[in-house]
Amino acid sequence: MIAASQSLTQLRLISTADYHRMAEVGILGADEQVELIAGQIIQKMPKGPAHSALCKRLEKLLESQLGEHALVRMQDPIQLDDYSEPEPDIAVVRPQDDFYASHHPIPTDVFLILEVADTTLERDLGSKADLYSAAGILDYWVLNLSAQQLHIFREPSPGGYRRQLVLKAPQSVRLQAFPTCEVSVQACFGMA
Q1: pLDDT tens digits for 58-93?
Q2: What is the pTM of this model?
Q3: How far apart are CA 34 and CA 38, in angstroms?
Q4: Could you say which of 35, 103, 156, 170 would form a disulfide bridge with 133 (CB–CB 3.0 to 4.6 Å)?
Q5: Is residue 61, in this structure, part of any structural domain at all?
Q6: Which domain range does residue 126 map to?
Q7: How many domains does the chain contain in total?
Q8: Are 182 and 174 in contact (CB under 8 A)?
């Protein structure tokens, strides 16, 4: 008879170093839409035109308000820890002269992470929020494309964000790191 502890399947978590090596040797293709979350390679969902347009609108909006005070990155990796390297739709990070050529931004470099959710709403509001909170990301936003709502997550803790708000037009919010940068829900969704 097999002991109970021997019968359980154990996962082998993939580290960010392993993940990068897999890409270098061709196990992961250059065009594969994946990200490393909590040691597991997760398939990313394809982005439709409305999702892409909203991301571009937000990129322009944030860049116009923040100027040289921050770098707005689109769907680029953030290394949260040794086992998570998500690629959020938008990350507002501390500027660096080399634009992070030598390493991906880490949590202390991040001012804001923004995800646009259509088919991924449950994951973005659940497991991704928990992941970003555990990493200490101070300002995490999720734009719910279908409901045209902006979910704000603040005050991270190991057990999840302690403060959450849901905004609709005509409400607006200021970035925690840049109190003069105000973003309205109407502007996010391109409403007149």
Answers
A1: 999 999 999 999 999 999 999 999 999 999 999 999
A2: 0.90
A3: 13
A4: 156
A5: yes
A6: 47-188
A7: 1
A8: yes
